[in-house]
Structure formats: C-alpha cells, structure tokens
Amino acid sequence: MFEAREFLRKKLIGKKVNVTVDYIRPASPATETVPAFSERTCATVTIGGINIAEALVSKGLATVIRYRQDDDQRSSHYDELLAAEARAIKNGKGLHSKKEVPIHRVADISGDTQKAKQFLPFLQRAGRSEAVVEYVFSGSRLKLYLPKETCLITFLLAGIECPRGARNLPGLVQEGEPFSEEATLFTKELVLQREVGHLPSCFLYVEG
C-alpha cells in the first residue's frame, strides 16, 4: 500500500529507532495453500515514544494479526494494537474507509531507452524536479521516482564516473573495481529512499 510505505519512509528514513524483539517465528515448510517461510524475528519498533505498528494501525494503513488464545507468540503491545484498530474502524480510516481507494499508477521507464529519451526534454524544460531515490545501483547510477510525473526512471550523475561494481556474467562473476563498494555505500547512506527536492535536471543524464 503506497500510503503505508510513504508513512514509514517519511517517519523513519535516517532516524534512530528503538527495537524490542517480541518473539521469533521458526521456519515453516510450504503447504498446498501457504508458501514456505524462513525464520522471522518479530519486534516492536518505537521512535520518540511512538509505536510504529500502532501508528500504522490507527491510520488504517495496517490490520492486526489474530492469534489463537493459546498462542503466546504475539506483540508485547497486542491489546494496544487491537484498540487502535477498533478506533480506525469506527472512524473509517484508511483500509476501513467506505470511500473509493485511490489507485497509484506508476510508469516504469527505467528499462525503456526510447521512452526515457522522449521524457528527457520534458525534464529539461521543467528545469527542476522533485524525486525520491528508489534504488542505488552504484555510486553514480540511481533509480528515481518522480511523484509529479508518476514514473520511475534511471539517472546517471553527470560529470563523474564511479568504479564499476561486481557483475554476474554467464559462467563467471566479474570482480568489482577498487572502491566500488565504498562509492555505492556512500551514495546509499546519503540519498537512498530520501527526497531529493528541486533536483536540477541539467545535472543529470537520463538512461533507459
């Protein structure tokens, strides 16, 4: 759900949080109706005294898992989650609203060279664009989400060249160049999932 993702991104990216492990779900094999799951660590995450799970539920952006009465593996704040869900249902928040659910359609042109080239003049005329960094391929190659244009597109930072990272080729793994991992990590820590507001398009090259 787009709204839930955006709530978490804006609330948590770049922030320090408190994590309390509530329980660990052991791995489970696949059945005819349920896929296999690896071991899962389930925890309560808080920031500034706010329980993130409870905040999601209260806004109608998540629902509470129901457990058997004899199942002790549950959130340490289970009662609070149920109360938050009851309020969200009563107030018609998010998933519980009777209004039509908004549909977010995003055009992914990051792998379409022709469409990306057609889109470039539009960005250049706009002069400045706001975006969210969806993925970092390398120190200088990023996938951006442009909310106003509702599209995903790949950008190269103009004027620089970062070391190439390791690549999986048919039959072999090509080792990365020196400092490629450091460059990628630096860019991730700086901009991944962050808003890069008023991004000058003249500083970027659009790649399909």
UniProtKB/TrEMBL annotation:
PANTHER family: EBNA2 BINDING PROTEIN P100, STAPHYLOCOCCAL NUCLEASE DOMAIN-CONTAINING PROTEIN 1. This is Staphylococcal nuclease and tudor domain containing 1. It holds the Pfam family SNase. Residues 1-98 form the TNase-like domain. One of its GO terms (biological process) is mRNA catabolic process. It comes from the Eukaryota. GO terms for cellular component: cytosol; nucleus. PROSITE patterns: TNASE_3 (PS50830). InterPro entries: SNase_OB-fold_sf, Staphylococal_nuclease_OB-fold. GO terms for molecular function: nuclease activity; RNA binding.
